[in-house]
Write a structure and sequence with these properties.
With 387 residues, the chain is mainly α. Helix content is 77%, strand content 1%. The longest helix has 29 residues. Its cofactor is Mg(2+).
Length: 387
């Protein structure tokens, strides 16, 4: 079932409760039909990905104008190597969401070649923030591959020492690109604040994630409440709230009402995204994902682990305690077998469906058609993802 059919199904589940409910849902059903018809024309994801990639050299060239890069040509060359090596090859979901938000929310008569350049620049800033986080995250997790290639710190021409310094260079690049393009804009301070706040929240989520894994097999913290706190801070803010907020700020549409909607829906999207990510880490196809799953070996507080502990009998919990967080390949396989025995994949499909429907129902409260269209298209981009 595609997303549009799912939305219509979710809508039909609540029809009949009252005359008011029927009226609201008929209106939403009309919106569903309108948005589904526009999916193929409103935002061409394939075409915009090409445009986003075409914009990257220009974004980097602006950064290269810095006097220090002019003074040290070798640093300029390395900076380009670092950014290209960590930005190219991904799904660019955050960058595309930024551009998608601007293009859908902005009035058509206000969209120009220059405003689209700025939207794509902000999109790359969101991608650069992710690159900064991933370089350090891969070191902290001891990850092996990223996007089908060795992690940045594992490259022969990089190493851990260079990778840590490169992360600093990546972060500075974000700030300088933002300054070079928006310093004279009235929205500069607000844009800067949102990047800074997002990095802070993400670091809190990373802290919760790392400290839970270091808890020496004490799984009392493996609760859904604790998991949701990790997801909210580590994933939702910089994966959804930041890109959507950036696009709305550029369109001058970030106000009290849209702020509340972005907050609520981004947190739900982030929860769905991380649950999918956890499942893919364990059961995904490495040829498709481009990375080896490591959540079991690292003892991560994942959705699968929390659900498993909720379902475990005493003998199964004993197996979990011995094998979870172990680097032994046989132990990882035993945990995967335990997940299957506990029917975790089936529970995942059920909860994934519930979350899709929950998000769709929340969207009914969004009053602006363009904003509702945006959230539906962001959700569509996440529908049934395998990587």
């Amino acid at each position: 079932m595609n997303l549009c059919k799912r939305m219509a199904t979710a809508n039909s589940l609540v029809v009949g409760r009252s005359v008011a409910t029927v009226t609201i849902n008929k209106l939403f059903e009309s919106a569903i039909q309108r948005v589904c018809r526009s999916f193929s024309t409103k935002f061409d994801l394939k075409k915009e990905r090409e445009e986003l990639h075409n914009a990257l050299p220009g974004v980097i060239d602006v950064l290269a104008k810095h006097e220090k890069f002019q003074e040290i040509p070798a640093a300029d060359k390395w900076m380009r190597n670092v950014l290209n090596g960590n930005l190219i090859g991904g799904k660019n979901m955050r960058g595309l969401t930024t551009v998608m938000t601007y293009k859908i929310i902005e009035k058509p008569e206000n969209i120009t070649e220059e405003t689209m350049r700025l939207a794509r620049t902000l999109g790359w800033c969101a991608e650069i923030l992710q690159a900064y986080c991933l370089v350090l995250d891969d070191i902290a997790d001891g990850s092996i591959t990223r996007r089908g290639m060795p992690c940045w710190y594992r490259r022969e021409d990089v190493g851990i020492a260079n990778a840590v310094n490169d992360a600093t260079l990546i972060h500075y690049s974000l700030l300088q690109i933002l300054r070079a393009n928006f310093e004279k804009s009235p929205s500069y301070v607000e844009l800067f604040h949102n990047f800074n706040e997002t990095l802070f929240y993400t670091s809190l989520g990373q802290y919760l994630d790392i400290m839970t894994g270091l808890n020496n097999k004490n799984y009392n913290l493996f609760t859904m409440e604790h998991y949701n706190a990790i997801v909210k801070h580590k994933s939702a803010y910089y994966t959804f709230k930041l890109p959507i907020t950036l696009g709305m700020i550029l369109a001058n549409q970030f106000n009290e009402e849209t702020h509340k909607n972005v907050d609520d829906i981004s947190m739900q999207l982030g929860r769905l995204f991380q649950m999918q990510d956890d499942y893919i880490d364990c059961f995904g196809d490495e040829n498709m994902t481009g990375k080896m799953g490591t959540d079991i070996q690292e003892g991560k507080c994942s959705w699968l682990a929390v659900k498993a502990l909720q379902q475990c009998k005493p003998n199964q919990r004993a197996v979990f305690t011995v094998c979870y967080g172990s680097k032994e390949p046989a132990h990882s396989e035993r945990i995967k077998q335990l997940y299957v025995q506990l029917k975790i994949p089936e529970l995942y499909k059920e909860e994934e469906n519930e979350y899709y429907n929950k998000i769709i129902q929340r969207m009914q409260a969004v009053s602006l058609n363009a904003e509702r269209d945006l959230y539906l298209q962001v959700l569509d981009s996440q529908y049934g993802r395998k990587q």
